[in-house]
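Question:
When you can, review this sequence-structure pair and walk me through the tokens.
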Amino acid sequence: MITTISPNKPAMGLLAAQKGASFIRKAISEQGAANIIVATGASQFEMLAELVQQDIDWSKVTAFHLDEYIGIPETHPASFRKYLRERFASLVPLKEFNYVNAETDPYGECERLGRKIQDFPIDVAFIGIGENGHIAFNDPPADFETEAPYIVVNLDEACRRQQLGEGWFPTLEDVPEKAISMSVRQIMKSKVIICTVPDERKADAVFHTLHDPVSPACPATILREHLEAWLFLDKEAAI
């Protein structure tokens, strides 16, 4: 089931952050700690800016990185590790942040992160939806079956063009063709999913997510099978 909320754009990030923060505080209250997933990209700017301002005991929060391009250094402007350090991890006193290091053996890194996350059941996943309907870097047709928490994936042209269009790379040829991504099944194991999707360029993906049959052809449709998924849209994405 997806609960959809569509305020004006400035309020979207705040409401998503507040809702996610309420579930993090609940997990800390009930368990003494909370485990979260954090996404990147232009869609997460406002939400993350608000999330770091929330009243949370961050020293009890362990975070996991959703995905990363294979082969680019952390100093690269498009590096998701750089993004998360600057916009999130350096701004709150987390217990631990588990980054995806895609400069090492990617299959070994998938195994390392997979072993790690099994000990930290995810309470709240903060994610987005791509222009092609992907969640994380699970482009269509996405693998809905693998139980591996992290996998090596090929990025389709629509995904790569989105990264180019958002200004992360100078040319399409510069956009990597492979990435490490959290798998669909691992994302769906999260107790709560907070999905923030702004901008008119995401409107088609949102429409298909809400109205198409659940299928790997539009990976985000799987969110409709989650018990507590919250979809935050601005009015442009909700058209």
Q: What stands out?
A: The first strand starts at residue 2 and ends at 5. The two ends are 20 Å apart (CA to CA). The CA atoms of residues 71 and 103 lie 5 Å apart.
